[in-house]
Amino acid sequence: MSNKEFKDTLDKVLKPHGFKKKGNEWTMETIELLKVIDLQKSNFSNLYYLNYGYNFKGFDYDGTTYHIFSRLGSIDKEINTVIQATFDLETPMDDLTRGRNLSDLVNSVLLKEMNSTNSKDDILNLLKTRQTLNDISFRVKQYLNIELE
């Protein structure tokens, strides 16, 4: 599968959920949030990373690309192996399987979270499931009224 075909397949998965594509980035707005998904290509191979996150509307802070950042992954080793193989275009895999894997992963992992995260309160509930909040900036923690260590 070519890089263009890979991006087109991802676009076909995200568009029905209301995401709009510009370059290697897809966005969707709710009343309170801007949901962002972007493809990041490795500098060393034909491997992609699927980053996603949320930005709060009305929160004037440009100190980071995402107010809340995540990368597609799983604590389940088998799922992580499928993610790695699917997003590494150098891994031998027929186009049909890669496309099916991409669609399944995006729908079952990424969109499962993103479709249920539409407000500041949803973000706060999502953050309660994280082991650490070390990747969230001080200013975002202040905005969310999260206790600072």
How does this model look, in words?
The chain has 5 helices and 5 strands. It is of the alpha+beta class and 149 residues long. The protein has one domain (3-143). Helix 1 (3-14) packs parallel to helix 3 and helix 2 packs across helix 3 (95-114). The protein is globular and about 50 Å long.
Layout: helices, strands, pairs:
Elements: H1 3-14, E1 20-22, E2 25-29, E3 33-41, E4 48-56, E5 68-71, H2 77-87, H3 95-114, H4 120-127, H5 138-143
Antiparallel strand pairs: 1-2, 2-3, 3-4, 4-5
Helix pairs in contact: 1-3, 2-3
Structural class: alpha+beta
Strand fraction equals 15-25%
Q: What is the oligomer described by this structure?
A: single chain
* Strand arrangement, major sheet: 1-2-3-4-5
The averaged pLDDT comes out at: 93
Proportion of helical residues: 25-40%
Uncertain runs: none
The overall strand count is: 5
Q: Between the first and last Cα atoms, what is the distance in angstroms?
A: 47 Å
Please trace the helix and strand order, writing H or E for each element: HEEEEEHHHH
Domain unit count? 1
Q: Main sheet?
A: 5 strands, antiparallel
Choose one word for the global shape: globular
Tally of helical runs: 5
What Rg, in angstroms, do the CA atoms define? 16 Å
